[in-house]
Amino acid sequence: GQSSVLARAVSIAAVAFGVVWVLAPGEARAGVGVTGKQGIEIEGPRNRRGFYIGPDVGFAATFFGKDLMPSMKIGLSLGGGVTERITLGVNVHVSPYLKSGGYVGFGGDIELTGFVYEGLYLRLGVGGMGMPRGPNDNGLTGGVGARPGLGYEFFLNQSAAMAVGLDYDIRVVPENADGDLEARHGILAGVRFTWY
To answer: CB count, 10 Å around CB of 70?
Structure first.
C-alpha cells in the first residue's frame, strides 16, 4: 500500500545516510592531483573545509513500472565542508526527459558526502523534483525521496576537482497517471566539476 512504499523509501534513505556517516574516515582525501613536470600522482589528504561550487551533468534511466524513460540531469551544487571528511550542500537541477513530449523536470536535493579513501566517496541526496505522471503523459507531478550514490573525485589542480559517479534515485510520487502512490526508480551516471 501507500504506507509501505513510503516506509521503503525512508528506510533506504536512512541506511544510505548511516553508511555515509560511519564509513567516512577522519580526513577527506583526494584521489590524484596534477603536479607540474611529475604529471599525475597520488596525493595525501586534502582539506575540503570551506565553500565549494560546481556544475554537473549526467544521463539517467527512470523506470515507470515496466516502462523506461531516458533523461538527462543538469545541476549546480554549492555548499561547504562540515569536517575534513564530510561536505554538506545543495544540488539544484533540471531534467530534460527524452520522451513524453520533451517534458523538463525541476528539483533539488540536500547532499551529504563522505570521502572514504583517497577520492572515493559515498553521497546521499534527499529532496524532491517534478516529473511526468507517466511515460506517455506530459502532466506534472512531484516526487520526494532520496538519491544515494558513490563515485571517485580527483583534483585537476589545487582548487578544481572532477568526479565521476553513479547514483540510484528513488522518489515517491503521490499521483501517477492512475492516481496512485508509487515509487519511481532511476539510475544516473554523471560527471561533476567542483571548485573548493
So the answer is: 12
Q: What is the pTM of this model?
A: 0.73
Residue 91 exposure: Cα atoms within 13 Å on the Cβ side = 29
Question: Given its phi and psi angles, is residue 65 left (phi above 0), alpha (psi -120 to 50 degrees) or beta?
Answer: left
Query: Using one digit for the tens of pLDDT, what is the confidence trace for 156-171?
Result: 888 889 999 999 999 9
> Is 44 in a helix, a strand, or coil?
coil
Residue 184: phi and psi, rounded to 5, are: -100, 130
CA distances from 64 to 67, 153, 162 (A): 5, 31, 31
Residue from 73, 20, 42, 69 nearest 192 by CA:
73
Residue 102 backbone dihedrals phi, psi, to 5 degrees = 75, 30
